[in-house]
């Protein structure tokens, strides 16, 4: 108890998938570093394109980059020039034949990483931290999230002493593995120093029984009880 576990890492292989899909024991350290450099470079290059995550797949001498964004037009560029530039840059970084796919995020309001980036952007523009947090919570709940928790840490409001403030709405069951919890982290570089933002969004619960399934279960229980009662009556006779 009390140990902070990453909401995604604990669900990988259960209801979440890996962001990097490849396996190579000999070159693993080099590949991990290469993945980190690719992600850091693309995140900086596509700062204004609302990129949530970057998936990487490797097979032989090929690498596929999947960019998840709510603004695909900015990533693609005029006549696909943006994608072509990214492909050439990834090939130069890795020395492998690269393919780039752009995946559109339909509901950006319930994407935790985009929510965290949005708060960070507002804090850099000197918007009050509590106002920025409330705005993100309202948007997420209106978009259909079952719960959201937002936490900001640092010299909030330019205070001398750093502190942590958090707001929560709905329910966020972090210890329930079947709960799909989206987690995002971002940093705002303000004049007073860095402010860290963490966002947890509870989207839905997997393997949840529908009303129809619950009714069928109730009928089965009733039938079993009736059969049991009739057997007891026959034994008494």
SSE layout and pairings?
Blueprint: E1 20-21, H1 28-45, E2 51-59, E3 62-69, H2 72-76, H3 81-94, E4 97-104, H4 112-124, H5 129-142, E5 147-154, E6 163-170, E7 179-190, E8 193-205, H6 211-236
Helix pairs in contact: 4-5
Could you walk me through the main structural features you see in this protein, from its secondary elements to its overall organization?
- This protein is of the alpha/beta class.
- It has helices at residues 28-45, 72-76, 81-94, 112-124, 129-142, 211-236, and strands at residues 20-21, 51-59, 62-69, 97-104, 147-154, 163-170, 179-190, 193-205.
- The strands form 2 sheets. Strands 1-2-3-4 form a 4-stranded mixed beta sheet. Strands 6-5-8-7 form a 4-stranded antiparallel beta sheet, with helices on one face.
- Strand 2 and strand 3 form a beta hairpin.
- Helix 4 (112-124) packs antiparallel against helix 5 (129-142).
- It is globular, with a radius of gyration of 24 Å.
- The chain starts with 19 loop residues before the first strand and ends with a helix.
- The model has no long low-confidence stretch (mean pLDDT 87).
Task: Give a quick set of tags describing it.
8 strands, four-stranded mixed sheet, 6 helices, alpha/beta
Summarize the structure.
With 237 residues, this protein is an alpha/beta fold.
């Amino acid at each position: 108890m009390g140990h902070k576990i990453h909401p995604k890492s604990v669900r990988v292989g259960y209801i979440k998938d890996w962001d990097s899909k490849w396996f190579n024991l000999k070159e693993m350290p080099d590949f991990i570093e290469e993945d980190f450099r690719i992600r850091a470079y693309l995140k900086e290059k596509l700062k204004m394109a609302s990129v949530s995550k970057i998936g990487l797949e490797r097979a032989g001498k090929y690498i596929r980059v999947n960019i998840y964004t709510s603004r695909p037009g900015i990533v693609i560029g005029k006549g696909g020039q943006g994608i072509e530039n990214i492909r050439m840059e990834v090939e130069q970084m890795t020395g492998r034949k690269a393919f780039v796919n752009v995946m559109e995020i339909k509901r950006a309001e319930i994407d935790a990483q985009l929510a965290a980036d949005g708060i960070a952007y507002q804090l850099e523009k000197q918007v009050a931290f509590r106002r920025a947090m409330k705005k993100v919570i309202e948007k997420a709940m209106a978009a259909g999230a079952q719960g959201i928790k937002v936490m900001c840490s640092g010299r909030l409001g330019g205070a001398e002493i750093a502190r942590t403030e958090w707001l929560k709405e709905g329910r966020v069951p972090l210890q329930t593995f079947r709960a799909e919890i989206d987690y995002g982290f971002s940093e705002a570089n303000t004049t007073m120093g860095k402010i860290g933002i963490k966002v947890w969004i509870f989207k839905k619960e997997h393997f949840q029984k529908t009303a129809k399934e619950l009714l069928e279960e109730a009928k089965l229980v009733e039938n079993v009880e009736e059969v049991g009662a009739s057997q007891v009556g026959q034994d008494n006779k």
